[in-house]
Amino acid sequence: MNRIVFLIAVLLATGTVQGAQLYRWVDDKGRVEWRDTPPPANAKKVEKRSVGGSVIETNELPFSVQRAMRDFPLTFYVTDCGESCSKARAHLNRRGLPYTEKNPQEDIEAYKKLTNGRLEVPLLFVGREALRGYREETWDAALDGAGYPRSVPGARPPAKPAAATVVTPPQPATPDATPAPAPAAPPPAP
Q: Do 163 and 112 touch, CB atoms closer than 8 A?
C-alpha cells in the first residue's frame, strides 16, 4: 500500500502526469497494480482514471494590475488630434496598461458635463483624477501613484501602422499607342 501511495505522490509531484491516464487493476495473484500503461488481458477489476496536474493560469494580468484596475480604472478620451493624442496612446500601450478608450465626439454633451464644458483631448481619467493634455512625467506620476507598474510582463507592444503603399492605376491602352522603347543602358566605365 505504501508503494502505491509513494508512486502516486511521485507522479503528481513531478508534473509528468498532466492529462495522463492511470490504470488500477488486480493481477492474477491478487495484488493491486497501478500503472500508466493499460493492464494485461488477464487483469481483474480494471479501473481507468484520468489524472490532471495542477495548472497555474499565466495569461491573466498580474495581481498588481488587477488591483489598480479595480481601484483606479483608466478611461482615455481621445480623437485623431495629432501628435499629442498619438503620443498619449503610445504611452499607455508602451506600459502595457489596459484602458477604456472613448471618443468624446460620440456624445459631446456628456463629455461637456464630464469636463465642465472643456472640449480638450487627450484626457485620461486615472480613477477620478483627470489628466488634461499629455505630459509624460505627469502621466507616469499618476499611473505610478495608482499602483500601475511601469511595464506589464507579457504585454504586447502597440501595433505599428502598416506602411502606406501607393498604387497607381493601370493606364488604359490606346489602339494607336506603341510601347516606348526602354532607355539604353549607360556605357561601361573605362
A: no
